Amino acid sequence: MSSIDWHAAPPMMTDDQRRNALADMELIACGEELDLPWRRVRILLDHKLAVVQHPVLTAGSRTSLGLTDRGLRFMDAAGARQTNCA
User: Fold this and answer.
1) The CATH number of the domain covering residues in 15-77
2) Are 84 and 65 in contact (CB under 8 A)?
3) Cα separation of 73 and 18, whole Å?
4) pLDDT digits (tens, 9 = 90+) for 2-23
5) Of residues 31, 75, 38, the one with CA closest to residue 53
6) Torsion angle defined by CA atoms of residues 22, 28, 31 and 33, in that order, rounded to the nearest 10 degrees
């Protein structure tokens, strides 16, 4: 039997990952997550900062990304809750 805990918390984010996460979360908040690379979306999902939402009323898709309460607290802690949505 394996002793690996597959449900353990993901490793801490590096400074670069934190900066990328905040920028990516701003895109999600603005509804502009379409071009986010999957490897960066995975980090948000693994850290429970974002969630896949289904169903949504979006042209051409039934899913989208949304921010979790934990994600909003993460943005608040970084002072990045204000977005620059166009």
Assistant:
1) 1.10.10.10
2) no
3) 13
4) 566 666 667 788 999 999 999 9
5) 31
6) 100
